[in-house]
Structures are given as C-alpha cells and as structure tokens.
Amino acid sequence: MEKINSTILKTALEAIPKLTADNYTLWKNLVDNMLDIQNLREALTSENGTLTDTQDVQLRTIITSKIDKNT
User: Fold this and answer.
1) Which residue segment(s) compose the domain that 41 sits in?
2) Is residue 70 part of a domain?
3) 3-class DSSP state for residue 67?
4) Which of 6, 12, 18, 50 could be stapled to 68 by a disulfide with Cβ–Cβ 3.0 to 4.6 Å?
5) Does any domain span residue 71?
C-alpha cells in the first residue's frame, strides 16, 4: 500500500505545473489534490492546525519548486 501511495503522490507532484500568471486555477486545484493525498489540508486550514517540522519543510520545498521564478 505504501508503494501505491508513493506512486500516487509522485504522479500528483509531476502533474503540478509551475505557477504562472496564466494558470492559477489549475495550479491551485492540483496543489489542493496534493494536500489531500498527503493529509495536510486540515493542518493548513483549521484554526488550530499545525504541521510537523518535516511536513513544513517538505511542503515549502514542493510549493517553491512549483512557482515560476519569472512570474
């Protein structure tokens, strides 16, 4: 099961394009999917939600890698 989850996450990450001025809606929807796969949505959106240090670093790394630096 872990291998399946890793494969699904890898596919989800590869599907997220770099954020540009023209693709915000698509980018947001794909990032939302990734947050759901990693069970991070509640920690990010609830009033008292927190991320572990590892989750924080992983999420920041993913998000920054998916932003077009020329935008």
Assistant:
1) 2-65
2) no
3) strand
4) 18
5) no
Q: Taking the C-alpha atoms of 35, 40, 46 and 52 in order, what is their torsion angle to the nearest 10 degrees?
A: -150
How far apart CA 9 and CA 12 sit, in angstroms, is 5
Q: How many residues does the chain have?
A: 71
3-state SS of 6-65 is HHHHHHHHHHCCCECCCCHHHHHHHHHHHHHHCCCHHHHHCCCCCCCHHHHHHHHHHHHH
- 66, 28 in Cβ contact below 8 A? no
Residue written as token pair 């989800």: 12
pLDDT tens track for 13-57: 999 999 999 999 999 999 999 999 999 999 999 999 899 999 999
